[in-house]
Amino acid sequence: MNRPAPAPTEDRRPALTERRPSALAEDGPSPLGGHLDGHRPSPVVEDRPLTLVDGHAHAWSPVSARARFRAGLAGPTAGVSAGHTQVNLISVPADWAYEMLLFCQRNPKPCPVLDVTDAGSWTTVLAEGADLRTDLPRYRVWEHGELVDEPTDARAYWREDLVSFLIGCSFTFEWALAGAGVPIRHVEQGRNVPMYVTNRQCRPAGRLHGPMVVSMRPVPPVHLAAAIRESGLLPAVHGSPVHCGDPSGLGIDDLGRPDFGDPVDAEPDDIPVFWACGVTPQAAVMASRPPFALTHAPGQMFLTDARDEQYRVA
Amino acid sequence: MNRPAPAPTEDRRPALTERRPSALAEDGPSPLGGHLDGHRPSPVVEDRPLTLVDGHAHAWSPVSARARFRAGLAGPTAGVSAGHTQVNLISVPADWAYEMLLFCQRNPKPCPVLDVTDAGSWTTVLAEGADLRTDLPRYRVWEHGELVDEPTDARAYWREDLVSFLIGCSFTFEWALAGAGVPIRHVEQGRNVPMYVTNRQCRPAGRLHGPMVVSMRPVPPVHLAAAIRESGLLPAVHGSPVHCGDPSGLGIDDLGRPDFGDPVDAEPDDIPVFWACGVTPQAAVMASRPPFALTHAPGQMFLTDARDEQYRVA
Fold first, then answer.
1. Which residue, among A90, A100, A113, A117, would best test binding to B if mutated, counting the most B CBs under 10 Å from its CB?
2. Known InterPro entries for this protein (chains A, B) (predicted)?
């Protein structure tokens, strides 16, 4: 499932070869720790975008997409199941659930909560018949803030005390942007969206704290107004951008070296546009080190049955 | 502070005289119980709208408004402190806080949470220097789901384990509606907005359940699109309407007999437009009977320093 290494350019990071989690633990920096140390975090596994795996992925129904993921297919889900809402997953033990829900309420741009399960339940009102333990392309398993595994099936790690939070994903509003004529460069280029840890701290909640993570899309100036307007009408999937232009305004040194996902090629006049990102709870897990957490792998989202239109506010 | 009884018409309920809470407990139905029994709930205290008390109430700064309320002024706050965000208050013991926050997440139209305090704290990031125990016009005190008092100062009832939820109020978007030319009839008529308990059940959360409450504004057909659009752009203060037209669609028998607030006179062509209302948590308190809760009195809101524009999504 590795993505072929792209032709090297100054702006591109070579694709990593697949590594076992144990290899990461032995010789690699931890994802956030590496970043804070001046290194970049390393994904354990790099999957090909599903729109490259199957040119018809945009037409998969959410039920069909989930069945494929349950069967083991993995990869970034940008462009999959047109018009259906994608969500981030963060599952924490019940004694961390109030703080996680409060963290989300206090940081609604990165963490718009679309559903919360009862403890131990792997079902959600957003997708009838789905199993949150198996129906995502790939998971990340965290122990005391350290990434310990990236399985495609999380049943071996499931706990009866897990409360799962489903958080809106910006892949959802890409259909609205595309409909308004905004080019989605990372989809055009067959890559995962680039994501960056910023220097903006979230408002903490109890034991949970951490920096805001953003996704970035290069937008031509002529399309900037539409990109802001169309995403703004979908606050449940992060809404309008949190920043446009100079990445140093968010403490990002090099757009060519994202903390998660792939670098994307921009046209000369493009403006980098930054949206709050649902990987933010993972950054909070890394910084706050709860004993256990289960999340999606960045860019590899849960496909719900909800339609984007259900979340459009006007 | 009683509102003078309006000239009786078929559509109007005579204003009630002020009654002591004990009188209500002795001879009146409880607010929700009465409704469910086929009676209408009775407010304990009826205050005059503050725009009638002071014709310049729209120009009060939030700081000034809170100081007046702290000094004892009471009354509905529609039209007070133009352009500033008003919020509902619901305070519950800490062991009910997760369920209340989850109830709000699961019912985002009636319960958009704008801030949550730490247990025992009476301060909020939304209003520097404010005291949630004193700075609302009037409170309601609930024990086991029964209304026991309506003080203008809640310090005698304060508990160290109270977690306070501040929930967006539709009075906030009335400025946007007025700016778009929509007449706000209850403000024009110097009355509190009418509110109704509906037959729509909220999605429960643990021990918390109850019906959705709505506010109603009669809107001329020519202004309906603007009313829907302008409120929709402010989802943090209930967003777009949940229903328009025939009140029986929400199980409301008689618009002239609201469950909270005052009846409002409509013009012949007006369409009744219903927005989800932040009194919904009070209906949940009545139905779910937590041992203790402290809320605002319906229509008598907390004035924050936040500007409506901060919550406009596009």
1. A113
2. D-Glu_cyclase, Putative_hydro-lyase, UPF0317
Q: CATH assignment of B172-276, given 3.30.70.20, 1.25.40.20, 3.30.2040.10, 3.30.565.10?
A: 3.30.2040.10
Q: Which residues pair with B140 in a beta bridge?
A: B295
- Cα(B26)–Cα(B35) distance, rounded to whole angstroms? 17
Contact B116 A98 (CB under 8 A): no
At residue A44, the pLDDT reads 56
A21-170+285-311 architecture in CATH? 3-Layer(aba) Sandwich (3.40)
Residues of B in contact with A239 (CB under 8 A): 313
Name the residue among B102, B233, B239 with its Cβ closest to that of A116: B102
The ipTM value here is 0.83
Among A211, A216, A202, A233, which Cα is nearest to A104's? A202
Q: Which of B248, B219, B277 is nearest to B78 (CA)?
A: B277
Residues of B in contact with A94 (CB under 8 A): none
How far from B220 is each of A40, B214, B217, CA to CA, in Å?
Answer: 59, 19, 10
Nearest CA in chain B to A227: B314
Interchain proximity B105–A97, CB inside 8 Å = no
Task: Quote the CA–CA distance of B146 and B158 in Å, as a whole number.
Answer: 17
Number of residues assigned to chain B: 314
Q: Which of A102, A117, A275 to mutate to test the interface with B (most CBs of B within 10 A)?
A: A102
Task: Look up tokens 């002795």; give the residue.
Answer: B26
Count of CB atoms situated within 10 Å of the CB of B222: 10
Nearest CA in chain B to A167: B105
- On chain A, the residues whose CB falls within 8 A of the CB of B97 are 98
User: For the domain B21-170+286-311, what is the CATH superfamily, name and number?
Assistant: PSTPO5379-like (3.40.1640.10)
Angle of helix B97-106 relative to helix B280-288, nearest 10 degrees, comes to 130
The Cα B250–Cα B269 span in angstroms is 20
**Residue B312: closest C-alpha in chain A:** A232
Contact B94, B119 (CB under 8 A): yes
A21-74 pLDDT, tens digit per residue, is 333 333 333 344 333 333 344 555 678 999 888 999 999 999 999 999 999 999
- The domain locations on chain A are 21-170+285-311, 172-276
